[in-house]
Specification:
It is a peripheral membrane protein. Belongs to the GTP-binding elongation factor family. LepA subfamily. Belongs to the TRAFAC class translation factor GTPase superfamily. Classic translation factor GTPase family. LepA subfamily. Its main location: membrane. Keywords: Cell membrane, Elongation factor, GTP-binding, Hydrolase, Membrane, Nucleotide-binding, Protein biosynthesis. This protein is α+β, with helices and mostly antiparallel strands. It folds into five domains: about 5-180, 3-Layer(aba) Sandwich (Rossmann fold); about 195-280, Elongation Factor Tu (Ef-tu), domain 3 (Beta Barrel); about 295-370, Alpha-Beta Plaits (2-Layer Sandwich), CATH 3.30.70.870; about 375-480, Alpha-Beta Plaits (2-Layer Sandwich); about 485-595, 2-Layer Sandwich (Alpha-Beta Plaits). It contains 14 helices and 33 strands. The strands form seven sheets. It has an eight-stranded antiparallel beta sheet, with no helix packed on it. The protein has a six-stranded mixed beta sheet with strand order 2-3-1-4-5-6, sandwiched between helices. Strands 21, 22, 23, 24, 25 and 26 form a six-stranded antiparallel beta sheet that branches. Strand 12 and strand 13 (about 245-250) form a beta hairpin. The N and C termini lie far apart (about 60 Å). Residues about 50-60 have low confidence and may be disordered. The chain binds guanosine-5'-triphosphate.
Length: about 600
C-alpha cells in the first residue's frame, strides 16, 4: 500500500481545445507510464467518436508513477474530465474524488466560458489549483496577459503558474514537480471500516460493469463482499486494479487510492455515481451523494426503414447499458410509425448517440425536432410534464405553461459583442450582466432553453467567427405565452414537425418553416399545400406546384445502362424518404426545416 503522503490525486480543467488531452498524454509519456511504442495521441480518449471529433466525452483515469526531484517515488492519479457543456455533471462529480486541479489555459486564447465553468467546479470541490498556461510554442502566446485574466476574471493567484508547451514538452517537468509540491496529499484512515466513493461506472462486454472507486478509509481486496449503500445490494468483488492506463490488477487498494473493481454487475443502472461502498457487514456514514444527471433535451428517433424497429430497440438497449443519463421510451407517431422518445443531457449528447446508432448498428434514423420539458398546468388544477409537443392537449383546457430557463455565460472579443447581443435578444434573452476583461466581454443572459437547444451554438459560432465561448446551467421554470405550432403537408398533420413556440414568434417561425419545407420537399405529380397552424388557425402557407419529374429525360442517347443507373439512384434516394399521406418527405427535411437562419 502507498503512504498517503506520497499520493497526489488531481484532475485537469480547461476550455475545449486548450490542450487538456495533449497535456495528459505528455504527463503519461514523460513518466514512462506507457512504453514509447504504445503511445498514440490522446491516450485517454477511448471511444472512436471521441478520437474523430477530438473531444473528450467520458471521464478517464490514469495512474502515473513519478520520482520527484527529492528522489522520492510518488503515485499521481489523474482523472480526465470532459470539456463540453453537456457533460458538466461528469466534471463536477469526478472533482469530488480528487484534491487538486491543473487549470489549463491556452496562452494564445485566454480565459473562455468553460474555463470559468470548470474552474468553479474545482473551487466548489475545495481544490488546490495550479494554473498551467499552454501552447507557449506558438507565436501568439501571451503568458502575462493570460495571468492577468486569470487573476481578474477568476480571482485566483497566478504567480505560481507554469508556462508549458504540451506539444514540445517544455515545462512538463515543472508541472510534475508542481503537482507534488503544491497539491495536497489525500487524508484517510487505513484502520477504519472501508469507505469508498463510486466515482464512475461503464459497461465492458467482457468484464461486465467496471466501477471506478476512490478509497476514503480502510482497505479493499479482491474476493471481498461489498455493499452499495444507495440500494443496499451486496456484490462479490472479483477483480480490483488500477489504470496505467490499461487495466492492471493489484492486491489491494488503500486510502487515497483510485482504482477499479468488477463484481459481475450486469448494468450501469445498478450502480449510482456518488454512492458509498463498504464491506458487507460494516456500517459507515454515507458520503454526500451526487445529483443524478437529468435529461433535458428530448427528441424522437425513428428508423427510416420501419422494418428495422426491433434492431433499433436492441441498439438503444445496448447503448443505455453504458449510459445511465440517456432515457428512452417507445413512441408511435402517425407519420413515422414506431420509434423511441429519447432524453439527452444536451445536443452533443443527442448527436453522439444518434451517430453511434447509425454507425455501429447501421440503422438510418429520422430525428424529430428536439424539445425541452414543459410544465403544463391545466384548468382543472392538474399539471404534467410535456416531453413531446405531439402530446399537447387542446389549449382550451390549458391554464398556463412554464418553460425551463437557463443562465448562459458568453465570452467574446469586443468586436463581435453587438452580434451576440442581437442573437440573445432574438432568442428572447434577458441581459443580466455585461462586464469586460481586457478586450473581451462577458455577457450573462437569462434565456429560454427551448431557444438554445436547436442551433444557438452553431449561430453563435458563426456570427462570431468561432471566437465566442458559451456555457450554461439550468435556472428555473417560468411561465410564458407558449403555443404548439403544427405543420400540415397536403392537409395531413406531420406530428414529427410540430413544436412549441412563443406566441409572438409563431408567425415568423411558421413562415420560415413552410418556406424551408417548400424547398426541401421534392415536387410531386400534384399540387401540395404546406401550412403552419396554431390550433385550427393557419398562420403561414406555401404551395408546391405540380411537376412530372422524369429523371431519365437527360439521357437522350439510348444508353440503357446509364438509364438503369439513374433509376437505381432514384430508388436509393426513395429509401431515405417517408410517406405522409401521398407525399414523400426526405429525411433531412426534419432537421433542416427547424434550423432558423436569422
Ligand atoms: N502548438 C501547440 N498546440 C497544442 C498544444 N497543446 C495542444 N495543442 C493542440 O491543440 C488542439 C487541442 O488539444 P487537445 O489536447 O485535444 O484539447 P483538449 O482540451 O483536450 O480538448 P477536449 O478533449 O476536446 O476538451 C490539438 O490540435 C493539439 O494538438 C501546444 O502546447 N502547442
Amino acid at each position: 500500500m502507498i503512504a498517503l503522503s506520497h499520493i497526489r490525486n488531481f484532475s485537469i480543467v480547461a476550455h475545449i481545445d486548450h490542450g487538456k488531452s495533449t497535456l495528459a498524454d505528455r504527463l503519461i509519456q514523460s513518466t514512462n507510464t506507457v512504453a514509447e511504442r504504445d503511445m498514440k495521441a490522446q491516450m485517454l480518449d477511448s471511444m472512436d467518436i471521441e478520437r474523430e471529433r477530438g473531444i473528450t466525452i467520458k471521464a478517464n483515469t490514469v495512474r502515473i508513477d513519478y520520482t520527484a526531484q527529492n528522489g522520492e517515488a510518488y503515485v499521481l492519479n489523474l482523472i480526465d474530465t470532459p470539456g463540453h457543456v453537456d457533460f458538466a455533471y461528469e466534471v463536477s462529480r469526478s472533482m469530488r474524488a480528487v484534491e487538486g486541479s491543473l487549470l489549463v489555459v491556452d496562452s494564445t486564447q485566454g480565459v473562455e466560458a468553460q474555463t470559468l465553468a470548470n474552474v468553479y467546479h474545482a473551487i466548489d470541490a475545495d481544490h488546490e489549483i495550479v494554473p498551467v498556461f499552454n501552447k507557449i510554442d506558438l507565436p501568439a502566446s501571451d503568458v502575462s496577459r493570460v495571468a492577468e485574466q486569470v487573476e481578474d476574471v477568476i480571482g485566483i493567484d497566478a504567480s505560481g503558474a507554469i508556462a508549458v508547451s504540451a506539444k514540445t514538452g517544455e515545462g512538463i517537468n515543472e508541472t510534475l514537480e508542481a503537482i507534488v509540491q503544491h497539491l495536497p496529499a489525500p487524508t484517510g484512515d487505513v484502520d477504519a471500516p472501508l469507505k469508498a466513493m463510486l466515482v464512475d461506472s461503464w459497461y465492458d462486454s467482457y468484464l461486465g460493469v467496471i466501477v471506478l472507486v476512490r478509497i476514503i478509509d480502510g482497505k479493499l481486496k479482491k474476493g471481498e463482499k461489498v455493499k452499495f449503500l444507495s440500494n443496499d445490494t451486496i456484490h462479490h468483488v472479483d477483480r480490483i486494479g488500477v489504470f496505467r492506463p490499461e487495466m492492471t490488477p493489484v492486491d489491494e487498494l488503500g486510502p487515497g487510492e483510485i482504482g477499479f473493481l468488477t463484481a459481475s454487475i450486469k448494468q450501469v443502472r445498478d450502480t449510482r455515481v456518488g454512492d458509498t461502498i463498504t464491506h458487507q457487514r460494516e456500517e459507515v456514514e454515507p458520503l454526500p451523494g451526487f445529483q443524478p444527471a437529468q435529461p433535458v433535451v428530448f427528441c424522437g428517433l425513428f428508423p427510416v426503414d420501419s422494418a428495422l424497429f426491433e434492431d433499433l430497440r436492441e441498439a438503444i438497449d445496448k447503448l443505455a447499458l453504458n449510459d445511465a443519463s440517456f432515457s428512452f421510451e417507445m413512441e408511435s407517431s402517425a407519420a413515422l410509425g414506431f420509434g423511441f422518445r429519447c432524453g439527452f443531457l444536451g445536443l452533443l449528447h443527442l448527436e453522439v448517440i444518434r451517430d453511434r446508432i447509425e454507425r455501429e448498428y447501421d440503422i438510418d434514423l429520422i430525428t424529430t425536432a428536439p424539445s425541452v420539458i414543459y410544465h403544463v398546468h391545466m384548468r382543472d388544477g392538474t399539471s404534467f410534464d410535456l416531453h413531446n409537443p405531439a402530446d399537447m392537449p387542446d389549449m382550451t383546457h390549458v391554464d398556463h405553461i412554464e418553460e425551463p430557463r437557463i443562465k448562459a455565460t458568453i465570452l467574446v472579443p469586443d468586436e463581435y459583442l453587438g452580434e451576440v447581443l442581437k442573437l440573445c435578444q432574438d432568442r428572447r434573452g434577458i441581459q443580466e450582466d455585461l462586464t469586460y476583461a481586457g478586450s473581451r466581454a462577458m455577457a450573462v443572459y437569462d434565456l429560454p432553453l427551448n431557444e438554445v437547444v436547436f442551433d444557438f451554438y452553431d449561430r453563435l459560432k458563426s456570427v462570431t467567427k468561432g471566437y465566442a465561448s458559451f456555457d450554461y446551467s439550468l435556472k428555473d421554470y417560468r411561465e410564458d405565452n407558449l403555443v404548439k405550432m403544427s405543420v400540415l403537408v397536403n392537409d395531413e398533420p406531420v406530428d414529427a414537425l410540430s413544436m412549441m413556440v412563443h406566441r409572438d414568434r409563431a408567425e415568423t417561425r411558421g413562415r420560415a418553416m413552410v418556406e424551408k419545407l417548400k424547398d426541401l420537399i421534392p415536387r410531386h405529380m400534384f399540387k401540395i399545400p404546406i401550412q403552419a397552424a396554431i390550433g385550427g388557425k393557419v398562420i403561414a402557407r406555401e404551395t408546391l406546384s405540380a411537376m412530372r419529374k422524369d429523371v431519365t429525360a437527360k439521357c437522350y442517347g439510348g444508353d440503357a445502362s446509364r438509364k438503369r443507373k439513374l433509376l437505381d439512384k432514384q430508388k436509393a434516394g426513395k429509401k431515405k424518404m417517408r410517406q405522409f399521406g401521398k407525399v414523400d418527405i426526405p429525411q433531412e427535411a426534419f432537421i433542416s426545416a427547424l434550423k432558423m437562419d436569422s
